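yo

u said u wanted the structure for the complex thing, so here. seqs first:
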Amino acid sequence: MTDERSETVLRALRRTRQIRRFTDQPVDEAALQSILEVARWTGSSMNSQPWTFIVLRDEEARRRIGESTRYARHVGGAPTAIAIVMPGKDPETDAYDEGRVAERIMIAASALDLGAGIGWVEGEEHATVDELLGVTPPALMRTIVAIGHPTEEALRPRSGPGTGRKPLSEFVRER
Amino acid sequence: MTDERSETVLRALRRTRQIRRFTDQPVDEAALQSILEVARWTGSSMNSQPWTFIVLRDEEARRRIGESTRYARHVGGAPTAIAIVMPGKDPETDAYDEGRVAERIMIAASALDLGAGIGWVEGEEHATVDELLGVTPPALMRTIVAIGHPTEEALRPRSGPGTGRKPLSEFVRER
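structre next:
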């Protein structure tokens, strides 16, 4: 890759942020397919590709998920979302692979000038959301990534809790 | 972003692969710092940034890790590696955030024309590797990402088990 291309990718990685506020503009179908294609190539333990994705096209379903959850409320205001369903057999392996694919979806959306925000379903919320999406045990549907065009406010540089990052010197050591 | 820049990023994402074979060429210090900077901006649960990174500059330490592990053997043949240390308090949250940051390191390395390969430490291997790196419970050091210049063979398109990906139609549904 040329230095310029490398820097384009590194910049895209550094600037990818959790986005929770979206405009009403729909997400272009080609963009959605590009994001899914990136997700498809995510690495996973033993290349098991253990996930199923549910594209949440139904506004009513997104609204109900937003109302039924604490950490996926922003899904209710997004023009689309991707739910990630894992096999639910090995919690730690699931979580690891799930984190990898969620991160890729975030970065791909950002590269397309969209915003994405990871949402989580937890505890008793699973009953409602699982039924809504037709997910049955042992399958685990924990992550829902909301995707849309970020509002101007959502893109504005923020400060305060939950926005900054520690300097490298605080968490890098050498051996 | 221009369409061309978007495509540069999406292509980088799609082509990032697990690399386990490296040449003897060292990893440029600026490249290593760029990778750490990308890792620094990874999102995490409640923005807790729960990780510590250990840059494995010591060849002997890498060699011993390679010899002592089943799924991190390739660390022994890499010119550098980054070990990810998690707090070890909540296994699933740790695994999720760890997967996110490991994936970013992979993509950043690929963007710099380097190759990276996630390695795992498991079971009884922890005793040896933890002691070597000075990791003490409850901290969990499970992921070591080997980084280097890929051999030509490692970059060649492969087929067979562990290389392909399912078509989207097999794991995407709609709601």
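The mean pLDDT of chain B is 94. DSSP finds six helices and five strands in chain B.
cya
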